[in-house]
Amino acid sequence: MELLTVDRLTKSFGARQAVRGVSFSLGSGQATAFLGPNGAGKSTTLRMIAGFLEPDAGDALIAGKSVLSRRTAAQMRLGYLAEGAPLYLDLSVRAFLRFLARTHGLSPAQSRLAIDRVAADARIEDVLARPIETLSKGYRRRVALAGAIVHDPPVLILDEPTDGLDPNQKVAMRALIARMAPEKAILISTHQLDEVEAMCSRVLVIDQGEIVADAAPAELAASAPGGRLEDAFHQLTHTEKAA
Question: What is the mean predicted confidence (pLDDT) over 70-81?
Answer without folding.
Answer: 96
